[in-house]
Specification:
single chain; 476 residues; alpha/beta; Rossmann fold; UDP-N-acetylmuramoyl-L-alanine:D-glutamate ligase; Protein-Tyrosine Phosphatase, Chain A; 3 domains; 9-stranded mixed sheet; 6-stranded mixed sheet; 15 helices; globular
């Protein structure tokens, strides 16, 4: 737990008592702060009360007193409409911050690597932390991934916090200047929370806030928005700027081409490794993640050979194209983290014969952009709120079954894949949707898929990634 004793005796309000909010309340209490905690959900309040967290109704309190409002990232403070408590805090000049901001204020001497992007940031965050730890560095990893920031261990000046940063978290983290900041990509997502694409893009750019000549920025150049950001930053020359690409050569950067990773940072392209050796990073979309992790780790002082070694032995992440089982020659892959069409497209690009499970709470745009991959879908099994809309989109283009539930979809996909006996077949859960219609979150959905697959009959094979296709990467 992070020591917050510098706030001892001060009233600090905490809004939202989920995982990060409870962590913040506990750390503040341990540091001697006067905690005013609240959640609009009665069950969460009851859980906090049982844990000894003091509750104060932040809708009806004296806002002249709290120094700060620590708000959970999921609670809106601007768009589409600010939470009433956020309005009260702002009207009384009370700062609105997040738990990662408290980490930054408490651990001023540590180094920080921050990673953001619409897709790929969790894998890249975990990959960077793995490479650094494998190279003998002292690392703590968290933020939007894994442990809440204030549950991490304190680090000295030689320690590095590797933090996945969502757009929500970046808006309420104001004092951390990342020694290495990574922006992978930007595509339409969370637009209602940022007032549109421009607001969302501006939130992502906050990863570079405060950087100067001693800091490094790693910027993807595989989409139009990030290419523009890279051009702006290169022209401004405020910090070291390194481009990365998972699709094509980029001068002065790190890139993947034809399934190999190259380092052109010294203006001479050097082949680093064959990405097929990194078996937990399947598909062209992971090439960009590998390039970003190489660039960030290199900027943190890790030797190229050590980075390559870390890429090869990376174990992968749950719910991100996680190979759950091989049953009767069919691979079952859990890609529950794919909550929008862009993320699902990256998974569909990896396999030739797909029994696809999709659906849930649809994001804006639905399945738009996935048309180039429809020919690879042997059959689609649709679930959740988006079932009817997705069926209308796919009708006449992809054979489909409306299943309603994940359990029904897994059963029907297994039956069809077993009957077809097509080489290289995969049953792929990659929903292109949020999970909240039927599950608590994407992890809950992925765990349910894993349990259903583990209960299936049939002989199990060796867990090795199925053959992936790389020649279609330019369509991504």
């Amino acid at each position: 737990m992070i020591d917050l004793s510098f706030l001892g005796g001060l009233p600090i309000a905490v809004l939202g008592l989920g995982k990060s909010g409870l962590s913040a309340a506990r750390a503040l209490m341990a540091g001697g702060a006067e905690v005013w905690a609240w959640d609009d959900n009665e069950d969460r309040r009851a859980a906090a009360r049982a844990a000894g967290v003091p509750l104060v109704d932040l809708h009806n309190c004296n806002w002249q007193q709290p120094r700060s409002l620590v708000i959970s990232p999921g609670i809106p403070h601007t768009y589409p409409a600010p939470h009433p408590v956020a309005v009260l805090a702002k009207s009384h000049g009370c700062e609105i911050i997040g738990d990662i901001e408290l980490l930054g204020r408490a651990q001023r001497h540590a180094r920080y690597i921050g990673i953001t992007g619409t897709n790929g940031k969790s894998t890249t965050t975990a990959l960077i932390a793995h490479i650094l730890a494998s190279a003998g560095r002292t690392v703590e990893v968290g933020g939007n991934l894994g442990f809440p920031a204030l549950d991490l261990a304190p680090l000295e000046a030689d320690g590095i916090y590797v933090l996945e940063m969502s757009s929500y978290q970046l808006e309420i983290t104001i004092s951390i200047v990342f020694d290495v900041a990574v922006l992978l990509n930007v595509s339409a997502d969370h637009l209602e929370r940022h007032g549109g694409l421009a607001g969302y893009t501006n939130a992502k750019r906050l990863i570079f806030r405060g950087q100067g000549a001693s800091h490094a920025a790693v910027v993807g150049v595989d989409d139009e928005i990030t290419r523009g950001i890279y051009a702006d930053m290169t022209a401004a020359a405020a910090q070291i700027v390194r481009p990365i690409s998972g699709q094509e050569a980029c001068a002065g950067g790190i890139y993947a081409r034809d399934g190999a990773l190259y380092d052109d940072s010294a203006s001479r392209a050097t082949r680093i490794l064959d990405l097929k050796e990194a078996i937990s990073l399947p598909g062209a979309h992971n090439w960009q993640n590998a390039a970003a992790a190489f660039a960030a780790s290199q900027a943190a002082g890790v030797a190229a050979a050590d980075i390559a070694r870390g890429l090869r032995c990376f174990p992968g992440l749950a719910h991100r194209q996680e190979l759950v089982a091989m049953i009767e020659g069919v691979a079952y892959i859990n890609d529950s983290k794919a909550t929008n069409a862009d993320a699902t497209g990256k998974a569909l690009a990896c396999y030739e014969t797909i029994y696809w499970i999709a659906g849930g709470q649809a994001k804006e745009g639905g399945l738009a952009g996935l048309e180039p991959w429809f020919r690879r879908i042997a059959h689609a099994y649709l679930i959740g709120e988006a079932e009817a809309a997705f069926a209308a989109t796919l009708a006449g283009q992809v054979p489909l079954t409306r299943c309603g539930t994940l359990a029904a979809a897994v059963g029907k996909a297994r039956q069809q894949a077993a009957a077809d006996r097509r080489p290289g077949a995969v049953v792929l859960l990659s929903p292109a949707c949020a999970s909240f219609d039927q599950f608590k979150n994407f992890e809950d959905r992925g765990d349910a898929f894993r349990a259903l697959v583990e209960a299936l009959p049939g002989s199990r094979g060796v867990l090795a990634q199925p053959q992936t296709r790389t020649s279609g990467s330019t369509l991504q």
